Amino acid sequence: MGGADFMHILYSEFFNYDPADMHWPFRDRFFMDAGHLSTLMYAQYYLLGNYKKEDIANFRQWESVTPGHPEVDVARGVENTSGSLGQGHTMGVGATIAAKFLQARFGDWMNHKIYGFISDGGVQEEISQGAGRIAGHLGLNNFIMFYDANDVQLSSKTDEVTSEDTAKKYEAWGWKVVTIDGHDHDQIRKATADANAETEKPTLIIGHTIMGKGCVTADGEMYEGHTELHGKPIGDTGADYQKTLENLGADVDNPFEIFKSVAEYYEDIVGKKERRPMQRS
């Protein structure tokens, strides 16, 4: 829920792809490092018609097409989801190196963007350190990664296990780093535009977000930012599932229905399946 604002701005305003053909070779790529946040991808592609409502409702169920962890389903838009934290970071850097090779071999028209999405646990992983260093050293300016920094991990707050300065760490590796309010659309928009204009460095967008944004208790009291919201269904926490749906403006009887306002917003994208994005010059 905390990273939804970034996904919305990315896919509605910046991501270069063909909704009618997710295999289009000149598309931008998106790599989700945090498999437990794959719901963000599924929800985004549900809006574009790549998943049915039943697929979303069957998240992480046996034989579901929305399993939540390691998978490749390019036809639906999934380049990968990562189970072991840090792997999505590494896959994104690898794809970025491949894109740079294609650009050098065939010209700038092959220089598509690679976007990554990482969580607090992901940036702690040792494999991320190696991927981050090589990306900075090689100056992979076509790699843009959003860091969903909500200060919560599976069993504790992050300050109980780490005190490092993530921004300074990535800056030391040669990255451009910008810190924003991860729920502010104007800040997300500017940070993403600046990252696309960067010519020398990969970009890390540190978005400070709220874990379980919008969750409330049975009494209607706000219940955001709690550690248990990281790994449990809302109804198994101090938050109340039905009251949270109501607080978010959802239909309690049809929780997987797309909000009317959202459907109208995406109507132009979903309804023009023959449209193909222009190649970058």
Salient structural properties:
single chain; 281 residues; alpha/beta; Rossmann fold; two-stranded antiparallel ribbon; 37% helix
Note poorly predicted spans. 273-281
Number of folding domains? 1
Strand content: 5-15%
Describe the largest sheet.
5 strands, parallel
CATH H-tier superfamily? Thiamin diphosphate (ThDP)-binding fold, Pyr/PP domains
The amount of helix comes to: 25-40%
Number of helices: 10
Report how far the terminal alpha carbons are from each other.
Answer: 35 Å
Q: Give the overall form.
A: globular
Number of strand segments: 7
Average of per-residue pLDDT values = 89
Task: Please state how the strands of the largest beta sheet are arranged side by side.
Answer: 1-4-5-7-6
Oligomeric state, counting identical vs distinct chains: single chain
Rg, please?
A: 19 Å
CATH topology: Rossmann fold
CATH level-two architecture: 3-Layer(aba) Sandwich
